Amino acid sequence: MARFLFVVLPLTGHLNAAVAVGQAVAAAGGEVAWCGPQTDLLPLVEPTATVYSTGKRYYRQDDSTGQTAARSLWDGYLMPFNRFILEPVEAAIADFRPDVLVVDQYAVAGALAAHRHGIRWATLCTGAMELTPPSWELPGHQDWVRERLAKVWGWAGLAPDPALDLRFSPYLVLALTSTELVGQAALPPRCVLVGPALGRRLDDPEFPWVDWDSERRHVLVTVGTSSEHMAEEFYQRTLAALRPLADRLQPVLVASPATVPEPPGHALVVERVPMLDLLPRLDMVACHGGMGTVTEALAFGVPLVVAPIRHDQPMVARQVAAAGAGREVSFTDATPAELTAALAAVLDEPSYRAAARRIAADFATAGGASRAAVELTTLASGP
To answer: Which stretches in the chain have pLDDT values below 70?
Structure first.
């Protein structure tokens, strides 16, 4: 039985995908262990799962956008996070003795530890910023990140290997997207596009189905877990935009009551949703462009209105628009009238849902978590 150690990043979209792949690997007969913060992992994995705790470093709230946000992500969170987890990952490897590490793309300390110990590893790409970065929007990004990665090598007392980018395993890169979205973009070697990884979510909350209005169509509005502190004004504009559609549309807003203090009576405001149970019932998703949210919606053939904020979200928004599965709007500047026009178009024009269903079929062919498990099992058994 092959042994797989998952090294994870404690952010919701990253964790959900990794857990889904881990479930598929276990179902295929692999032995799975986890390396990450216990507070994040224990609610998501089976009670009998082996978890090697790294402790927790929290993602610092940040209002920056564009290249400033990309660099702040690395300097303000990823670099301290990876320095923090390097020693616990080394200890987990020594104890569990895995055949393969499955490493979140941003948990580069896990990649370095695997390389240092001569263990094959696979990269799990849950975003687009490193996978398909536009040079014109993030000029110099690749060289700048490589300078940071050189410091990671230094933490282990090693000189950087110029042939090895710790963000991309030379053995296997699992990207949770498909050709319908990335198009002809250049991809790293040994990259397999498997589509979104969906699995059982043991921590799903209850949902107020009793307030679900079956006479209306439904839109989910969310800005993800790390940008809500920037979203109060966006939610107000969105509610104003939805007002002309109130007779036929019920919004479900994923937000705290403080962010949406006075919602209209027909709207549902909840802090968390059982996403995979909700999506088959939705007519549209309006979101920030996080790749997890976008690909989950498209996996169910649900079209989108995307208001990107930062990091890889502008890239994902453009991919959605280019594929015809939704419209992009400005998070900061779109007026209620512009939002109404975008929402009504995606709701009423059949081409958007047709494109979303085409992408859903492409995702199904790509194979998702099951395909990822096959690739990992092959990696573990290969020479």
So the answer is: 57-66, 134-137, 225-229
pLDDT digits (tens, 9 = 90+) for 21-40: 999 999 999 999 999 999 99
The DSSP code for 252 is E
- Give residue-wise pLDDT tens across range 176-231: 999 999 988 889 999 999 999 999 999 999 999 999 999 999 999 999 866 666 77
- From CA 146, how far away is CA 151, in angstroms rounded? 9
Q: How far apart are CA 266 and CA 252, in angstroms?
A: 9
CB 282, CB 218: distance < 8 Å: yes
Burial class (CB in 10 A: 0-12, 13-18, 19+), 368: buried
Which CATH architecture is the domain 209-364 placed in?
A: 3-Layer(aba) Sandwich (3.40)
Residue ranges, CATH 3.40.50.2000, the chain: 3-195+367-381, 209-364
Name the pTM for this structure.
Answer: 0.94
- Nearest in space to 224 (alpha carbons), one of 11, 31, 64: 11
* DSSP class per residue in 101-128: EEEETT-HHHHHHHHHTT-EEEEEE--S
CATH: 3.40.50.2000, 3.40.720.10, 3.30.40.10, 2.60.40.10. Which one for 3-195+367-381? 3.40.50.2000
Burial of 215 (0-12, 13-18, 19+ CB in 10 A): exposed
